Amino acid sequence: MAVRATTLLCLFLLQCVATSAARIPNIRLPSQRRESIQDVPLDTRPLIGILSQPGDGYNHETNLTSTMFDSKDRTSYIAASYVKFVESGGARAVPIIWNEPEETLRKKFAAINGILLPGGGTSLQDTPFYRVTEKIYHWALEANDRGDYFPIYGVCLGFELLSILATKNHDILEPFDAENNPGPLLFVDEWAKRHSLFEWVPLSVVEEFHTQNLAMQNHHWGLSPELWSSTPELNDFYRVLTVSPDRNNKLYISTVEARDYPILGVQWHPEKNAYEWGIDNIPHSADAIKVTQSVANYFIAYALFFLCTISQKI
């Protein structure tokens, strides 16, 4: 019965995607206007910005990673797994400190080839942290509109940030029971299996996503397919690739890509499979490690399209 319900939901999502695509113009990405990838001199030393978050990433009372810091905290952190993830794809990580002066942020933004919005426990209300993220997000959209290919990759909290930035609704997220809960990825259609980031994952692993728990989930909030499809700011801007169930078999959107910008959002944690060992439930099988590496390769390949000359040292 659960399988039938999931199948019907996926078909429903596919119809929503097709209907939405028919309503919006076919806007070509800057990269799509180039005739051949062979004609483009690639930047083989890409820099990826990783946005820091308020706090130190550690809850000293529970000896666990922090579940919430607000942006009044002057301390800032970036989890090491994101740095390793970026480096494994062949890029160098640049810390984007959320409370740096705007002049410094602009200089760093001008130097980097893409940005990673990591997971974490920071408040997503209208805080100074959110407003800085909003600023960087709009810089990225403007860069792409000018023809400068600039990818954004949002993970878990970063995925939720992208959803709030698109809707300008800080209360749009719904509660889910998916903390410390590795799970499957259910593709909404066959097309999604072999496009976007999944085109970079070995086919044998892709076929296991719906039966094996290869995607580490670690969140309390998310967006249901019903809410997503009824929100034009999300459904018209993003294409849904996968959904996933929480512990109560309540489905949430787990992978999306923007229709007309190089933006990828995942509610799950590809980086944890290879680079985090503090939680027993994180999958570390050979196929799980392939997932980490494939997603890293995909994101950094996106960044390689961006032609950037570093004029100043960071």
TrEMBL record:
Keywords attached to this entry: Hydrolase, Secreted, Signal
Nucleus is among the record's keywords: no
Signal sequence region: 1-21
Top-rank EC class of the record's enzyme: hydrolase
Gene Ontology BP, a term: tetrahydrofolylpolyglutamate metabolic process
GO MF term set: gamma-glutamyl-peptidase activity
Reactions this protein catalyses: (6S)-5,6,7,8-tetrahydrofolyl-(gamma-L-Glu)(n) + (n-1) H2O = (6S)-5,6,7,8-tetrahydrofolate + (n-1) L-glutamate
EC number annotated for this UniProt entry: 3.4.19.9
Catalytic residues (UniProt): C156, H269
Subcellular location per the Swiss-Prot or TrEMBL entry: Secreted, Extracellular space
One GO CC annotation: vacuole
Location, primary (coarse class): secreted
Homology family: Belongs to the peptidase C26 family.
Identification of the protein by name: folate gamma-glutamyl hydrolase
